[in-house]
Specification:
Arc Repressor Mutant, subunit A; 3 domains; PH-domain like; alpha+beta; elongated
Length: 374
Amino acid sequence: MARNCLQAAELTTSGRPVLLPTEIECSLLSAVDLECEDLPNFPHLKSGLLILTTHRLLWLPESTAASSASAIPLAAITHIFSAKKSIKSMFASPRLRFQLSVSPDGRVSDSGSGSRSVVVTVVIRGKGDLDAFLNKLWDSWRGRAWEIVHEQAGSDVASGSGSSSGMYTREGAVRMVGVSGILRKEQEMWESTDKSLQDAFQDLNALMLADFVRLPLERSGGMMNLIDIYCLFNRARGTELISPEDLLQACSLWEKFDVPVMLRKFDSGVMVIQNKSHSDEEVFGRIKTLVTKPDALRTGISASDAAITLGIAPGMAKEHLLTAESKGLLCRDISPDGFRFYVNLFPEIDPNDMFSVKDYGIYSTWLRAACASG
């Protein structure tokens, strides 16, 4: 049915399109529908692969049936419509439209000299970058590589040159020729400058976050949850909010600079911001002092108890307690009331003489506290 309207595209045995001389693939989209309400004989093309080349638009079905692969010459396209951005488009499949020149009987020709025009709609059902594909379609259509090839074919044969012709090299790069080459070179220069400026602004933003968190960290004992920093920072910015990804990217850049703060990720996956002067050994020492108090030896401590001692949020205190447990300093008991942490007495027990009672060390202190409570 495709032959009634579109040209048939030749495929290899593996299902790949057979390209024309000097034709180069530029981009592709998956799960694509092609629709045209103006032509009753337009083929039923659903959920296929759309390949953009320097010469054609190729639609390949999910199966490798060569008879159902279709081609639209770029020379037959007379106009490409800009993608419309609206609230409705946010909840629908992305679409792009172009105008196609056809003959009176509805056939698409290579020359594009048809008697009337129809509108073809490309519906993207899968995941794909519509804007990038549209930009490359504009570049290929304006480049008109098929015309350059025809113009230079005779001179190449006469001179015996075997080099590739047209505005594309054999490697697929665009040749810098004529006014279009100058404009393309200038565009590449601006894109490079824009990227450099973007990197510079990212570095500047990283430094400004680093400067913002100093005071909140001092008030929080040198460590804060990344989520709390995100809320504080956006509250201070008012309406100029940042996304969580922006904050995480800025914090990740701190390693490049000599700033007094750093991003840390606990084993549980919780991410925090802490001062570089923060010492886990100092925290462990304060936790050990807390758990060896007589009351703590009998009943253990909670995250809230550690938070009061360390001067930090309970969530951060719990992460410190879990880290101390992984180091062998604490033991954990889980009950309906939550987590309780106790000093680890196992290192003081001699496996060869388990029933001996020592009169020194933490084990002796725990024994006296247990007897006093009884």
